[in-house]
Design goal:
The protein is an alpha+beta fold and about 180 residues long. Helix content is about 60%, strand content about 15%. The chain contains four helices and seven strands. The chain is elongated. The two termini are about 35 Å apart.
Length: about 180
């Protein structure tokens, strides 16, 4: 029985951590719209993307690509607005992917615990790792797709910074973020 418990412990820890992570970054109260942290300085609030710059500076991007900085609407060319809209779409996509991955991770943790219990009750603890790894590889594939989206977000960020210098203080996603995502 001691060996069975030692196999179950890492699975239980994984379940608790995944459930905690799946609820992190999201908040909703009746008087405030859903708030999801996308990346460190980027948040989804309702249907807008809020980007924190240096100090107290804030940029807000609407679904149509309209951009305001510190509450002042920016006059954008059609090309700049298209880039801003692409930034918005990628940021929203990363946020939505994050929520979906959290839910999938929580489901996987629950499945891992069930698998561990089932296989231990059958006396086949060696099957636990194989089954859990198969499910984990599906989650890893989702994570790699999200990394692709983060790279696309960085590309849109760099284009927006180049075409609109006022956005420079908000362009904080560097090459390491996309690289680190794949580790």
């Amino acid at each position: 029985m001691k060996a069975s418990l030692s196999l179950l412990h890492p699975v239980a820890v994984l379940a608790v951590l995944t459930l905690a992570m799946s609820s992190a970054g999201c908040s909703k109260s009746p008087e405030r719209p859903l708030h999801i942290s996308v990346i460190d300085h980027i948040n989804m609030v309702g249907d807008h993307v809020l980007v924190k710059g240096d100090g107290e500076h804030r940029a807000e991007i609407a679904p149509d690509g309209a951009l305001s900085i510190d509450g002042k609407a920016q006059t954008l060319s059609a090309a700049q607005q298209a880039i801003s809209r692409r930034y918005y779409q990628q940021a929203m996509g990363v946020g939505q992917d994050s929520v979906a991955m959290g839910k999938a991770g929580a489901a996987m943790a629950g499945q891992a615990v069930s698998t561990a219990i089932e296989e231990l009750s059958k006396g086949q603890p060696e099957q636990i790792g194989k089954k859990v790894e198969a499910e984990a590889s599906k989650l890893q594939a989702r994570a790699m797709k999200m990394c692709d989206r983060i790279a696309s977000l960085r590309g849109a960020q760099d284009e927006l910074r180049a075409s609109l210098p006022a956005f420079a203080p908000f362009a904080k996603i560097d090459a390491d973020v996309a690289k680190d995502c794949r580790r």
